[in-house]
Amino acid sequence: MPEPELPGRRERRRVQTLDHVAATAMRLFEAQGYDATTMEQIAQQSDLAKGTLYNHFPTKDAILAHWVHLALAADTQRLHATIDWHAGFAAQLAHLLEASAEWTESHRSYLLDYFRFRFLNIESELRGGGDSDGETPRDLSGLFETLIAAAQQDGTLRTDVSAAHFASLLHHLYFGALMRWLTLPGLVLRDEFAVIADLFIAGARAGAGAKSPRKRQP
Questions:
Q1: Alpha carbon 86 to chain centroid distance?
Q2: Which of these, 37, 43, 47, 74, could form a disulfide with 28 (CB 3.0-4.6 Å)?
Q3: 3-class SS at 61?
Q4: Contact, 60 vs 42, CB < 8 A?
């Protein structure tokens, strides 16, 4: 009799299947377009039964989201290794935003479908907790937090707000710039990112607007 498959091995096989499906789907998206690609085609090209594919991914948007998350995780690791820790926060942030603009512009046609999926599944994502293992950040927000924490330690940024809170606020600014660019014709993404970088640095720099908590009126 064959030996039963261990839980860890099953999970690795499941992850490998998810990654294989996502890579296969992206090849189809690039070859024939996202809208023209069907779940049946993805199942066939992935060598999976259609029911098995739906057990892993309920929608085509879910497959796209998995691929985007894989790409972002890999790119985050690469960017983390390229950070110049002596350059100063403004230069470091500019470096991250430039790299993000380059990647985003090359994948623009997929992003509205990706963000639609993220919004529709925001509750389950929040229940899933954070996305960092405490070592190398695995997303752009994690990179923001790493840079902000270092800038707080060297006195560049104010410390009355935690690095995690600041990173969340910066990520909201980033997302707002990205959505403006995706939905309003004629905008230049690098210009949108430059605006939010200036706004964030002006408000977060040490000595800029830090106030003690307002006392409640009796």
A1: 25
A2: 37
A3: helix
A4: yes
Q: Note whether 27 and 45 are same-domain residues.
A: yes
Q: What is the CATH number of the domain that holds 2?
A: 1.10.10.60
C-beta neighbour count of 110 within 10 angstroms: 18
Are the C-beta atoms of 90 and 155 separated by less than 8 Å? no
Tens digit of pLDDT for each residue in 13-52?
999 999 999 999 999 999 999 999 999 999 999 999 999 9
Q: What would the pLDDT profile of 126-169 be if each residue is shown by its tens digit?
A: 454 444 444 556 688 999 999 999 999 999 999 999 999 999 99
CB distance 146 to 137 below 8 Å = yes
- Decide if 215 is inside a domain: no
Residue 72: give the domain boundaries.
59-204
Residues 143 and 110 in one domain: yes
Sign of the C-alpha dihedral computed for residues 143, 145, 147 and 150 taken in this order = negative
Give yes or no: residues 107 and 32 share one domain.
no
How far, in Å, CA of 51 to CA of 150, rounded?
A: 48
Answer whether 82's CB lies under 8 Å from 41's CB. Answer: no
**Is 73 found in the same domain as 33?**
no
CA distance 77 to 154: 24
Structure token digits, residue 162:
């935690």
Taking each helix axis from N to C end, the angle separating 39-46 and 7-32, rounded to the nearest 10 degrees, works out to 120
